[in-house]
Amino acid sequence: MALERPAPFERGRPVEIAFALPQGTDRLALHARVEPSGDDSDEEGDEEGRSRGGRELTFLSIGEDDRRLLRDYVVERLGLPAIPG
């Protein structure tokens, strides 16, 4: 999952994220790891020289139901053909 801005966490740090999808599903709570993006152009740190964190989250574990909800949302949002199963 790509983030709009750097996350205020160390790269590689495991985090728990919680969010709801627009179609009115229950809130999802997933474990992820903060990663740098492929275009991580602002490498400068904060005043103490610490990294400003990553811009992407890699899911570490996700249940089948949550995976299906996310997949269906992405397919609908991007206007892709339905994926069976």
Would you kindly provide a brief summary of this structure?
The protein has one domain. It contains 1 helix and 3 strands. The protein has one helix at residues 64-78, and strands spanning 14-19, 28-35, 56-61.
- CA-to-CA gap between the ends? 22 Å
Shape: globular
Strand pairing plus helix content: what structural class? Answer: alpha+beta
Number of strands: 3
**Rounded radius of gyration (Å):** 15 Å
In terms of DSSP E residues, the strand content is: 15-25%
Compressed to H and E, one letter per element, the order equals: EEEH
How helical, in percent, are the residues? Answer: 10-25%
Strand order of the largest sheet: 1-2-3
Separate helix tally: 1
Overall structural domain count: 1
Query: Uncertain regions: pLDDT < 50 for 5+ in a row?
Result: none
Quaternary organization: single chain
Biggest sheet architecture: 3 strands, antiparallel
Mean pLDDT: 81
Structure commentary:
This protein has 85 residues and is α+β, with helices and mostly antiparallel strands. The chain has one domain. 18% of the residues lie in helices and 24% in strands. The chain contains one helix and three strands. The chain has a three-stranded antiparallel sheet, with no helix packed on it. A hairpin with an 8-residue loop joins strand 1 and strand 2. It starts with 13 loop residues before the first strand and ends in a 7-residue tail after the last helix.
